[in-house]
Write a structure and sequence with these properties.
The protein is an alpha/beta fold and about 400 residues long. It is built from 17 helices and ten strands. The longest helix has 23 residues. The structure holds nicotinamide-adenine-dinucleotide.
């Protein structure tokens, strides 16, 4: 199947993601026609893209000629009929099922051969396909923000998505320099699901009065080599956005206790403490150089049984390159154990291959290792022992792991 750059790409929605996707495709040599509902929106998008290209030239990443060429390859329109000759059309409009369905239906009747890719984060690709009437042509192409920079695309297979449509979307994203993971149409796909325990288990540690937000962040950075601790990261993402993703994934998965929203995080959002954008979240962000914990507490000493301590020590010995206090090891093991467990559930439920789950977590969230690679390094038996020991300390059975044998790591 060709990935011929002569065939134009359509992008619907010229907001954050649509403009970024247009830039990514044009940067790789494709002609792009970018649509939005009015002229000022597409003009603004063109201006934003031009500014980003100016910065790339200033940084010496591309030449002036390349920048001009890329920008010339992006045309804009407010007439949907102009997308009729497109090969692939990426929809990146508001996250609303009815609005997306209408747009897919309209554009599918205009561009009768085009693959219709939705960039939805939280809606069902199968349901969008069925409602639009073009289920075989509808696939998911889940880009990450900022789309020109983030290397990962989750290509989502709706129940009736045709194999050629999946393969072509995959080839095109790869031709734009992206790494593609293929994923079944399940809530949160890979990244937004498997990352949940990083945030949720950390919030539960604070809710339990075990440690402060900065202690948790430091433990995850020092023992786990995560680039940013969960509280600083959720402050950057926006606590409200993080809560909304949790609620959506949890509801759509049938409310498993593992992924239940954090009461403390939700009450923070209700009080308007959304993170850096509102000046305060888990931390108070007075300015870039002055960030202090905003959730003040006196941690209580955590009771760790001998059985749990030995499981934690065995887990950490293999999982971490550095040593830490028992509290730090407990925090790290609890959070990483939750992530590995979620990855194992995702494998068991055939969300994606083990390799793709690892790739997605490394490229979509910058994890230092894929969770299943980590499990392989630690040893599945030690992971299972940790989860069993942790599960004895909770009332909601959330560390219960999938049946032994469904995951094999090396
Ligand atoms: N922002 C992110 O970090 C991110 C990451 C991955 C996926 N997504 C998904 O990408 C999609 C777009 O998100 P965004 O953050 O770019 O939103 P945005 O609000 O920045 O942009 C949405 C654009 O869609 C346009 N639009 C609205 N209705 C339209 C219609 N009927 N026809 C054509 N255009 C219409 C709006 O005018 C706007 O320009 C959503 O589905 C979102 O879930 C977002």
């Amino acid at each position: 199947m060709s990935t011929n750059a002569q065939n134009p790409i359509g992008v619907i929605g010229a907001g954050t993601m649509g403009a970024g996707i247009a830039q990514a495709a044009a940067g790789a040599g494709w002609s792009v026609n970018l649509f939005d509902i009015n002229q000022s929106l597409v003009d603004q998008a063109k201006e934003n893209i031009a500014n980003r290209f100016i910065r790339l030239v200033e940084k010496g990443r591309i030449s002036v000629e390349e920048s001009v060429g890329c920008q010339e390859r992006i045309t804009t329109t407010i007439t949907l009929e102009d997308l009729s000759d497109c090969d692939l059309i990426v929809e990146a409009i508001v996250e609303d099922f009815d609005i997306k369905t209408k747009v897919l239906k309209d554009v599918g009747s205009i561009a009768t051969k085009a693959i219709l890719a939705t960039n939805t984060s939280s809606l069902s690709v199968s349901e969008l396909g069925a409602a639009s009437g073009f289920a075989d042509r509808v696939v998911g192409m889940h880009f990450f923000n900022p789309a020109p920079i983030m290397p990962l695309v989750e290509v989502v297979r709706g129940e009736l998505s045709s194999e050629p449509a999946i393969q072509r979307a995959t080839l095109l994203a790869e031709a734009w320099g992206k790494t593609v993971v293929q994923v079944s149409d399940t809530p949160g796909f890979i990244v937004n699901r498997v990352a949940r325990p990083y945030y949720l288990e950390s919030w539960r540690i604070v809710e339990d009065g075990v440690a402060t937000v900065d202690t948790v962040d430091n433990a995850m950075q020092s023992l786990g080599e995560f680039k940013m601790g969960p509280f600083m990261l959720t402050d950057l993402i926006g606590q409200d956005i993080n809560v909304a993703t949790t609620r959506s994934v949890w509801n759509r998965l049938g409310k498993p206790s593992r992924l239940a929203p954090s009461v403390k995080q939700e009450s923070l959002v209700e009080r308007g403490n959304l993170g850096r954008k509102s000046g305060c979240g888990a931390y108070a962000h007075d300015d870039k150089d002055h960030v202090v914990p905003a959730i003040i507490m006196e941690p209580e000493e955590v009771e760790i049984s001998e059985y749990l301590a030995s499981a934690i020590n065995a887990f950490c010995l293999e999982a971490s390159c550095s040593t830490g206090s028992m509290l730090e090891k407990y925090i790290f093991a609890r959070v990483l154990g939750g992530i590995i467990n979620e990855a194992m559930w995702a494998v068991t439920e055939e969300v994606a291959s083990q390799k793709d789950i690892d790739t997605a977590m490394k490229l979509g969230t910058n994890y230092p290792h894929g969770p299943l690679e980590w499990a392989g390094k630690i040893g599945l038996k030690k992971v299972q022992q940790l989860l069993a020991a942790l599960n004895e300390t909770v009332a909601d059975n959330r560390f219960a792991s999938p049946p032994f044998g469904t995951v094999s790591v090396s």
